[in-house]
Amino acid sequence: MTDFIRFFIPFYFIIFFTVSFVGISYRVAKRIGKNPNVLPKDDSAYGLVGFYFKLILLALFMYTILLLLFPKDMFSAFKINALEYNLIQYTGLGLMMMALIWVVIAQLQMKNSWRIGIDSTTKTELVTDGLFRFSRNPVFLGMTISLVGFFLVFPTVITFSFLLTGNILMQIQIRLEEEFLLKEHGEVYLTYKKRVKRMLGY
């Protein structure tokens, strides 16, 4: 199981971000004629959130590469032994695979409305069907599930910190986007917000 996890985790995250961010973004960029990555690069509060998003992704990538290259050191570092059971690890693997599929489906259902960040320059359609009938933020939900799965597969203090920090950043981003969508779509978004939960459920 150790050797499988060693190779699975880095390749999983490479595939996750290559398909769900690079691939989907390229597809949308060709359709709309602009880069859908609109995270700000200024020193505003929102710009700081975007900066920490990139930082946590870089740290996650480096951590998984170190896991691949130095398995003996990484597998023993800050391990939470109480959670190291095959059943828990298999559950984590299942969650990670399900999360990848869920995120890609949600992004495809957004069509040309897909953005990384808040696009205040282009009017986008409010998507409320498909997975958006069950969650107002299915992409962030999928990313959270992916980090939960990662923690269960490889339970360490470090993977838990990725889960905690990533979730905090996503919750901040969600609230920033909600404020923007309310201004952009008004009563339509307010009705949708009342009907569908922020993460999952009616």
What is the CATH fold-level name? Four Helix Bundle (Hemerythrin (Met), subunit A)
Q: How many domains in all?
A: 1
Give the strand tally: 0
State the helical fraction.
55-70%
Describe the structure.
This protein is an all-alpha fold and 202 residues long. It has a single domain, classed as Up-down Bundle (Four Helix Bundle (Hemerythrin (Met), subunit A)). Helices cover 70% and strands 0% of the residues. It is built from seven helices and no strands. It has helices at 2-32, 45-69, 71-76, 86-110, 138-153, 157-185, 187-195. The protein starts with a helix and ends in a 7-residue tail after the last helix. The mean pLDDT is 93.
Question: What are its keywords?
Answer:
globular, 202 residues, Four Helix Bundle (Hemerythrin (Met), subunit A), mainly alpha
Summarize this, please?
The protein is mostly helical and 202 residues long.
Helix-strand layout with pairing:
Blueprint lengths: L1 H31 L12 H25 L1 H6 L9 H25 L27 H16 L3 H29 L1 H9 L7
Helix pairs in contact: 1-2, 1-4, 2-6, 4-5, 5-6, 6-7
